[in-house]
Design brief:
The complex is a heterodimer of chains A (about 350) and B (about 260). Chain A contains 16 helices and two strands. Chain A has about 350 residues and is mostly helical. The longest helix of chain A is centred in the middle third of the chain and has 27 residues. The chains are: A mainly alpha (about 350), B alpha/beta (about 260).
């Protein structure tokens, strides 16, 4: 019967007709791996770390290397948390990278006007707020396009990807703004809390809060119900439009938080540096077990999923493999992860 | 609970009087009367285009009637949305079930009406899973609904179990009436039997059940009252045991059966 499979993909439809692997004889731990992709990906991550550690123990195992892995994962991880919510509703946000750039550019302009490099905490506070609000604005645009104008999320966010990037280049004349207040870099970007970089702590706090919201609150349940069956959610009295708008605003705002973190880390805007962010965040979320088709979303999985490409990158550099292989490997792993997700859903959803 | 009521003395929970509804030039309902009583299964049957789904959509708040009167528990009501009608204690089990396949049975039962923890966590909209699970187990037990995995995704359940979850959800929240649209249309023989038994148990809780079905044997097996629509009007009304399949078909197609007061 076709009850709950209204929005399945062609791949899912094929998977249902494929003989599913005989899981009856598989060991219990294999089954539980299939059932919980975030744990499966965690095992893969630990295996990667083990392999690189064995190959180059001195270089890879050092605390410097772990710090740099964690720092690289932090900025993109915060954006990926927002992406996780969007994917959970069955949507997609391709605009995160451009929105992040737009937020940083507007923020950097404002802080430049308030004193630039020598500006004080007041300017930094205003700059961070501006960065988050300017980015959330594009989230609002996405949300309104998706709900009221019924533009598919793929196209709506592709459109705002272009618009936000273009707007960022207009605001900055296409040149990176380097006059970020020095205290922002020194007291946030380089700061440590109990030996852990402050930026990593911020990312962890964001992830913990978001994970709790998704896992234990009505907001999270409604997010997954919309991704599962939007019509059913509507009939259950969930304000679907309002919820979807809030989801895209959240994704934009978190891109803004990531942008502010990036300003603190690099003390400059990075207009050209975020073209791949949308795919990286989507890949991270999907690797961790969030479904590309909505209904299933896990922030914990996303954090694990984001760490996989970052670890690969670092490991390849240290081992001496051309780092371009990282892009290749992530692409391949992503396809495999989606395939496994399809198999899992195909064997679970009764017909 | 008491045995199914054979006479017509049970309280009328929902009554429609001379309901009219037109879509442009098409008159879908031309003065329909309809009654559903507490503790009874009332079947609503009719050929395609007879006005069944229009009437059901008015009863479940999707459409607003152009004319006529809707009485819920004796009081005139003018619901303007499905949310509105739910406040009157009327729940609908849609043909496509409207379940969220990725959520658990208890999350589905409480969807949009989640229990929250007390205190500050409740203000932060933290859900009370323990209470929701317990209350879901309670309603499932009282209706004899068996689900293989209370913490698993609903999509992994069989069609009959999914149907049972949807019906139990409606029974949990309905204080007056549950409307079921073709609940057995997609099910096999064994599953149909258990869903029909479930429908009776829902009625035995003392609420009215309105059953829309194409399946005459199912209707005869489970309904206390059968009301037949044809061309936007009620053309016949039978009590349990008064009609056979041939009578129903004749009423549906030619509409010459005598209109009785039910």
């Amino acid at each position: 019967m076709t009850m709950l499979n209204g929005n399945k993909s062609v791949g899912a439809a094929i998977a249902e007709r494929m003989p599913t692997p005989d899981s009856g004889h598989a060991p219990r731990w294999v089954k539980s791996l299939l059932a919980r992709p975030s744990i499966g990906m965690l095992v893969i991550l630990l295996l990667l770390i083990a392999v690189f550690s064995i190959l180059k123990p001195d270089a890879f195992l050092g605390s410097y290397n772990f710090r740099s892995i964690a720092l690289s994962a932090s900025v993109i991880g915060v954006a990926a948390v927002g992406q996780t919510f969007v994917l959970g509703t069955g949507g997609i946000d391709l605009s995160v990278g451009s929105v992040l750039v737009f937020g940083t550019v507007v923020s950097a302009r404002v802080m430049a006007g308030m004193g630039g490099v020598s500006a004080g905490w007041g300017a930094v506070g205003v700059g961070v707020v501006v960065c988050v609000v300017a980015s959330a604005f594009w989230g609002l645009v996405n949300g309104l396009l998706v709900t009221y104008l019924r533009v598919p999320a793929l196209i709506a966010t592709l459109g705002s990807l272009g618009m936000a990037l273009g707007a960022a280049q207009i605001v900055s004349n296409g040149l990176d703004i380097r006059s970020v207040p020095a205290i922002m870099t020194n007291d946030i970007g380089y700061e440590n809390v109990a030996g852990i970089p402050l930026l990593v702590v911020i990312a962890l706090v964001v992830a913990l809060l978001a994970g709790f919201v998704l896992w234990q609150t009505t907001y999270g349940v409604h997010t997954k119900s919309i991704g599962s069956n939007p019509e059913g959610a509507l009939r259950s009295g969930i304000p679907v439009r309002r919820h979807l708008i809030s989801i895209y605003v959240l994704s934009g705002a978190l891109a803004g938080v990531a942008g502010a973190m990036s300003l603190a880390e690099f003390s400059t805007t990075t207009i050209g540096g975020h073209t791949g962010d949308n795919l990286t965040t989507i890949a991270g979320a999907v690797l961790g077990g969030t479904s590309l088709f909505g209904g299933v979303a896990t922030v914990f999985g996303t954090i694990v999923g984001i760490l996989v490409p970052v670890t690969l990158q670092s490991g390849f550099v240290i081992v001496g493999v051309q780092p371009f292989w990282q892009t290749f490997a992530v692409g391949a792993v992503l396809v495999v992860a989606v395939f496994v997700d399809q198999l899992r859903r195909g064997s679970q959803n009764r017909r | 609970m008491t045995a199914p009521v054979q006479d017509s003395t049970a309280t009328v929970v929902v009554e429609a009087r001379q309901i009219r509804k037109a879509f442009g030039h098409v008159e879908a309902l031309r003065g329909v009367d309809f009654k559903a009583r507490a503790g009874e299964v009332t079947a609503l049957i009719g050929d395609n285009g007879a006005g069944k789904s229009s009437l059901v959509k008015i009863l479940s708040g999707v459409y607003t009637a152009d004319g006529g009167e809707l009485l819920i528990n004796g009081t005139p009501a003018r619901p303007s949305s499905p949310q509105d009608i739910r406040a009157y204690g009327i729940e609908t089990v849609y043909q496509d079930l409207a379940l969220s396949g990725d959520l658990t049975p208890y999350e589905n039962v409480f969807l949009g009406r989640e229990k929250r923890l007390g205190g500050i966590l409740g203000l932060l909209r933290v859900v009370d899973r323990r209470t929701m699970r317990a209350e879901t187990a309670e309603i499932f037990d009282s209706l004899n609904v068996r689900v293989k995995d209370h913490k698993g995704r609903v999509a992994t359940l069989s069609g009959g179990q999914q149907q049972s979850v949807a019906i139990a959800r409606a029974a949990m929240w309905a204080s007056h009436m549950v409307i079921m649209d073709e609940p057995t249309a997609a099910l096999g023989v064994a599953q149909t039997k258990s869903v029909l038994e479930l429908i009776r148990r829902v009625a035995e809780r003392g609420i009215g059940v309105v059953l829309i079905s194409h399946n005459m044997p199912d209707v005869l097996a489970v309904a206390d009252s059968i009301q037949v629509l044809r061309l936007g009007k009620r053309v016949a009304s039978f009590r349990r045991g008064e009609a056979e399949v041939a009578d129903l078909v004749r009423a549906m197609t030619s509409g010459d059966a005598p209109e009785e007061q039910s």
